[in-house]
Amino acid sequence: MQPNSNWRSPRLEYTPSTPAVLRCESGRRIRAKLQVISVTGGLLNIRSPLDRGSQMKLMFLTGAGVVLGTVEMLPSLSNTHQPFRFITMNEDDERRLRNVIQFSHDQNRRDQQFIIKERTW
Predict the structure, then answer these.
(1) Residues 6+ apart with CB under 8 A from 1
(2) 41 pLDDT exceeds 60?
(3) Beta carbons of 20 and 33 less than 8 angstroms apart
(4) What is the pTM of this model?
(5) Has residue 10 got a pLDDT over 70?
(6) For residue 17, what are the CA distances in angstroms to 7, 40, 67, 89, 106?
(7) With contact defined as beta carbons under 8 Å apart, do 8 and 85 qualify?
(8) Backbone angles phi, psi at 109, to 5 degrees
């Protein structure tokens, strides 16, 4: 079976964005705000762009607990928006992230169904 090139991992958009911390190999910490997340990567709001290919640890808090993973920075979209991809993440962190994203999607689906059901035609 050939993979569908249009398939994207489910995403969670944080509104408002959630605080995140990047830790460089040197130990330097960079504060950021997580705007979009999936199990494959996401988008950060950051003060200034980081070098493409930079690898660092990313930590953020979800409703299910802390998620920690190693990320690689992708080309910045602007002076404040930096996409990244996960390189590694332990099973527990990945499971936590998947559960939070799934819960959010399920909640949105329930909300949509309620709106449609309660709508007066």
Answers:
(1) none
(2) yes
(3) yes
(4) 0.76
(5) no
(6) 25, 18, 15, 21, 20
(7) no
(8) -65, -45
DSSP secondary structure letter of residue 110:
H
At 35, list the tokens: 């705007």
Tell me how far CA of residue 71 lies from CA of 2, 3, 105, in angstroms: 27, 24, 24
- As given in the structure block, the two tokens for residue 51 are 């070098």
What amino acid is encoded at 112 in this protein? Q
Per-residue burial over 68-105, b = 16 or more CB atoms within 10 Å of its CB, e = otherwise:
bbebebbebeeeeebbbebeebeeebeebbeebbeebe
Question: Pairing mode, if any, of strands 12-23 and 41-46?
Answer: unpaired
Among 56, 65, 66, 67, CA closest to 30: 56
Burial class (CB in 10 A: 0-12, 13-18, 19+), 17: middle
Structure token pair of residue 84: 């990244």
pLDDT at position 68? 97
3-state secondary structure of 77: coil
Is the CB of residue 33 less than 8 Å from the CB of residue 17?
Answer: yes
Sequence letter at residue 99? N
84, 58 contact by CB (below 8 A): yes
